[in-house]
Structures are given as C-alpha cells and as structure tokens.
Amino acid sequence: MALPLLTLYHRPGCHLCEQAGAHLDALNFRYEWVNVDADPDLRARYGDDVPVLACGERVLGKGAFSRGRLSQVKVLLLREAAGRS
C-alpha cells in the first residue's frame, strides 16, 4: 500500500524545515518540497508557519515535526488508504 505524495511547504534556511525533511526521508514518505517564498499566495497563506505538511489541500500539520509525530501521520494515512481499497 503506497503512501500518497505529500507536500512539505518550507522556507530556505529554516532548520525546522530541514529537520522535517530528514524525518520524512527516514520514515520513507513520498513528498515534494515547495518554497513558500517563491509564491506570494503561499507566503500569504503560510507566513511563518513553516514547515507545513499537506496532502493535497489538507494540512496535516504545521511547525516542528518529530519522528514520533510523523509516525502517527503515517499510520493515519495508511489506515485511510486501506479504507479506500
């Protein structure tokens, strides 16, 4: 069962964003990086809330992401995927 492709909204040089990316990698998430500063609409939407993890338009969380928190997100997404099968 594959996890959906997630979006990690970030800002270059943000240590919390880099940490979130490292934890996502360690937990084998599929995700893409999107720089909020490159898009005025995203900058207005997320401001200083980065990192923001989203699945489509659904925000899964904002701020610091520990491995434990991301593990909970992973379980949730896997359960949802299993329910759609």
What key attributes describe this structure?
85 residues, alpha+beta
Description:
With 85 residues, this protein is an alpha+beta fold. The protein is built from 3 helices and 4 strands. The protein has helices at residues 15-26, 40-46, 67-84; strands spanning 6-10, 31-35, 52-55, 58-62. The chain has a 4-stranded mixed beta sheet with strand order 2-1-3-4, with helices on one face. The longest helix has 18 residues, at 67-84. The protein is globular, with a radius of gyration of 13 Å.
| Spatial order of the strands forming the largest sheet | 2-1-3-4
Number of helices: 3
* Model regions low in confidence, pLDDT < 50 over at least 5 residues: none
How big a fraction of the residues is strand? 15-25%
What percent of residues adopt helix (DSSP H or I)?
40-55%
* Overall average residue pLDDT: 94
Quaternary state of this entry equals single chain
* Rg, alpha carbons: 13 Å
Tell me the distance between the termini: 9 Å
Morphology call: globular
Order of helices and strands: EHEHEEH
Number of strands: 4
